Amino acid sequence: MLLWYTLEQMGITLRLTVCVWVAAAIWALNSAEKPKTRVIRVDGGNIALQSALKVSRLLPAGSKRKLLLRGGQYLLDEPLVLTPQDSGLTIESNAGERAELNGGRRITGWRKESDGPVWVTNLPDFHLKPWRFRMLTVNGKVAARTRLPEKGFFTDENSDWNINGRMATDEELTTLRYRPGDLGPWLDLKSAEVRVYRVWDESLSKVAWLDQAQRTLRLSAPLRFPSGAFGVHKYEVLNVRQGLTAPGQWFLDYGENKVYYWPRPGEDMKKSEAWAPLTEVLIQIEGVNGNPVQDVTLRNLDLTMTDSPARSSGFAGAGYDGAISAHNSEGLLIQGLRIRRVGASGIQAVGTYRARILDCEFGETGACAISMSSSNDLEIADCRIEYGGHSTPAAAGMQLLGDHMHVHHNEVHDMPYTGISVNAGEGPVVEFNRVFRVMLKMADGAAFYTSGKNGVVRDNWAYDVGMGPQTQAPAYYLDDGTSGYIVEHNAAAVANWLLHVHNANANTIRENVFATSADGRVTFQGSKGAVLERNVFFAAGKLRFEASGEAIATMRGNIIHSEHQNLELLRLGMNSQLITFDTTGNNEGDPEFVDVTHRNLQFLPSSPALRLRIPQPPRIADVGPRRKTPAH
């Protein structure tokens, strides 16, 4: 195992074994030359990587340093921690190679049970503790944790609980009353976990005890809201042997310290590779208030295999940590990373300024791909996010909270909740993004979701939204506190709900094209002062356009069309009665798309939209990442 320490500017290369890395560092410190970048070449796994980081810390303070990693696996069982003394550090793969930071270990020793299709193996201890994890991959695919019921959800018998009322008690936050026959003394309390759902998020907890006589579960950790909040009474039980009913499922027996797996067709467990994580974080960037970690660069690395805890998801899955976890940093650059098959989020950052996340790929993240809070002056561009949320169905592709964010040319698809969520900040710009097949499991989200002030949402595309069991999902959603936004020149081809504006004030919505091949909805609730100009609202079936009394200040030059000539244009009038809109200055004619069924929303030359000076909408191919093929 070797470390190569290179002063690139001087053309000097020293080959050193790990045992003499201190001498190399002292030599570098005493060198009369001051090269621009000092490079430490790393080949040999986690020990070499940790040693190289120690070498870099002995170089002159403030100097640019680079850890250049040879291709291959670097197995971590704890995070690589960067602190303010690591400011100016770059960690990247050697040219033409990919270094993989892997927080897992391979599981071996599989044997078939005496009868049936299930295989089992005993787990080793790590760090003198039983190995516990919530993600298992077999041959590079994330396996499914066992659950009950096999389909659908259990319904609890808790009372409804109103968030606008009093604070919930600890007992209410830890108690779930189940229906007869759903659960019983057969439940393995050491292993089982309970996920309690709400409209847009959920909580996962271990089980402390079960009272069969009272049909009550006491949970080990409090839920974010009591079961029954918002009138939602559904839950599921995870990691139970009784749920092992189909290929691709697994169960971890906490009592026997064994893992059980039902192989998929064609899998031979004597030859298959099964992996599970040891750590929740791979790279931890940890500054402090007044002393941030500055100007760290992570480039062209692969990150995989992290775990997730049993906890509340938080809004949009933001409660989970990330494979990269950053606190109090400035000037962070993350470029060309591939973060796949991780148990929680891909990147989670708090108190991060001037961060850039560029040209990265995220796949099969357990929670969000990117979660940023209290983070300002952020740029996220040319990223691809797909198939997230295997640990929490409340996961958004991006959950962003901060000021002056620029989110552009990204693609997000196949997420259980929102695609891109921009919250409670000042002046975000969200443009040229492509979002599709989101809102597959949860409700009260959207392809594009906003709150905050003075933002711009433009030149984006949303399609196939609301295709899952929760079809109440708009393409664009301006929620509580959204004010002063400009939503312009976007396109949507969705299942039914085109636009939702809720408790949002003084926003301008112009030159957008919203279409559905079925019945469609446009809703303004509790809002004021919206300006709607030169938009197209189209439904192949019925189109219902509903607004509260003061929601729309100006509405002109729009096309509002139902192909079946079934329009409901309703405004909430006096005494909460719905009255018909006055649509003077707008057009109810056919916008004449090229092919709405195949999401070609370009206008034909004879379209009335062109006469109304509504510009052609963006094409799907013109938005999303500018590099059209993913990196390999």
Structural overview:
This protein is mainly β and 632 residues long. Helices cover 5% and strands 42% of the residues. It contains four helices and 64 strands. The strands form eight sheets. Strands 2-1-3-4-7-29-32-35-38-41-44-47-50-53-56-59 form a 16-stranded mixed sheet, with helices on one face. A hairpin with a 4-residue loop joins strand 21 and strand 22. Helix 1 (21-30) packs parallel to helix 2 (46-57). The longest helix has 12 residues, at 46-57. The radius of gyration is 27 Å and the shape is globular. Residues 1-33 have low confidence and may be disordered.
Question: What key attributes describe this structure?
Answer:
632 residues, 16-stranded mixed beta sheet, 15-stranded mixed beta sheet, 5% helix
Give the helix tally: 4
Overall pLDDT metric? 91
State the secondary-structure class.
mainly beta
Number of E-state strands: 64
Biggest sheet strand line-up:
2-1-3-4-7-29-32-35-38-41-44-47-50-53-56-59
The level of helicity is under 10%
- Which stretches are low in confidence, meaning pLDDT under 50 for 5 or more residues running? 1-33
Quick one: overall form? globular
Distance between the termini: 27 Å
Largest sheet: 16 strands, mixed
Can you lay out the helices and strands and say which pair or pack?
Layout (H helix, E strand, L loop, with lengths): L1 E6 L4 E6 L3 H10 L6 E7 L2 H12 L6 E6 L2 E4 L4 E3 L6 E5 L5 E4 L1 E4 L3 E2 L6 E4 L2 E2 L2 E2 L6 E2 L2 E2 L1 E2 L1 E2 L5 E2 L14 H5 E3 L15 E5 L4 E10 L4 E4 L14 E5 L10 E5 L4 E4 L12 E4 L5 E4 L6 E2 L2 E3 L1 E4 L17 E9 L2 E3 L2 E5 L2 E9 L2 E3 L2 E5 L4 E4 L4 E4 L2 E3 L11 E4 L3 E4 L2 E3 L6 E7 L2 E3 L2 E3 L11 E6 L2 E3 L2 E3 L12 E3 L7 E3 L2 E4 L2 E6 L5 E3 L2 E4 L3 E6 L4 E4 L2 E4 L3 E5 L4 E5 L2 E4 L4 E6 L5 E3 L12 E3 L4 E4 L4 H4 L21
Parallel strand pairs: 3-4, 4-7, 5-8, 6-27, 7-29, 8-30, 16-24, 27-31, 28-31, 29-32, 30-33, 31-34, 32-35, 33-36, 34-37, 35-38, 36-39, 37-40, 38-41, 39-42, 40-43, 41-44, 42-45, 43-46, 44-47, 45-48, 46-49, 47-50, 48-51, 49-52, 50-53, 51-54, 52-55, 53-56, 54-57, 55-58, 56-59, 57-60, 58-61
Antiparallel strand pairs: 1-2, 1-3, 9-26, 10-11, 11-25, 12-13, 14-15, 14-26, 17-23, 18-23, 19-22, 20-21, 20-23, 21-22, 24-25, 61-62, 63-64
